[in-house]
Every structure is written in C-alpha cells, then in structure tokens.
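Protocol step 4 of 5: obtain the predicted structure for the target chain.
Materials: sequence only (see below). No template structures provided, no constraints applied. The aim of this step is simply to have a reference model before the mutagenesis design in step 5. Sequence pasted as it appears in the construct record:
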Amino acid sequence: MSPPIDELRALAEQGNAEDQYQLGRRYELAVPQDYREAVRWYRSAAMQRHAGAFYRLCALSDIGRGVPQDYEEALRWCRLAADQGHGRAMFTIGFHYQYAHGVPRDLIQAHQWYNLAGANGYHAATKWRDRLAADMTRTQIAQAQFLARNWKPNSREPAAGPP
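Step 4 output (structure tokens):
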C-alpha cells in the first residue's frame, strides 16, 4: 500500500525526483484528478532528469491535461525521455510522425521510432512498425532501419523546461 498523499508530499518536498514523480502520479490518478498539481510535481522531477516525469509531461501535453494541448511541447518532453531509453516515449514520437502531430508526416521516422521503442521494451511498437512497413518501400524501410541502428541519445541538459 502506498503512503497517504500528505506523507508522500512531505517526502517529495525534500527534493527526491522519484518521490516527486510518484506524487505527480498520485495527483494524476486520484479521484478527483488534479492534473495541474501532477504537472507541478512532474516538472520538479523533470528538473532532475527523471525519465518517467519527462514522459508524463509528454502525455499530458499531448492531450491537454494540466497544461494546454501542444503536440510540439509533447514531442520535446518525449525526446528527453527517449534520450534515456524510455520505450513508450519512443513509441509516442513514432505515432506523432505517423499521424503528423506537431511534425510533418514521415513514415521513415515513424518506423525508426517504433523500432527503437520495441528494442527498448515497448513491445507493442513492433506491431505498429510492421503494419506501417506494409505502406513503405524497401528503400524507405532500409532507411528507417539505418536510422534506428545509428540513433544516439541527445545529452542536452534541460533548463526550466524542454528546450
């Protein structure tokens, strides 16, 4: 059983990124939900490069909960999570490329990110990659595979928010 929210808040206020992330999750999943408070705690954890906090900020920006809906902002947060090997963030980036959310539609990029997501533990992404490949040429698939093989995380440090 997880600690009461007041106890978790006291821990989070001490500055531990995991406690801040967990408090954000608690606010996000609470009844009633408090997305603004969740965002506040995720941002605190993100300042300490917490991959899960980066991803939750991506997800909330993507759907406009606690912050205005903004695909470009969502992608910035997702890329920070992806740089730490967060498979679900990689999948989300691929989805954005496939459906032109905040970026031009690019099947090669989508395939690359789905491939990376699958390789980083988000196994559902491989089904998305394989379905997408049916609409791609062999050359496009080869380009996507090359990009995935040669992808390197960006090591930028975030300031107060995504770059």
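Step 4 remarks: Residues 17-29 form the longest helix (13 residues). The CA atoms of residues 14 and 118 lie 35 Å apart.
Proceed to step 5.
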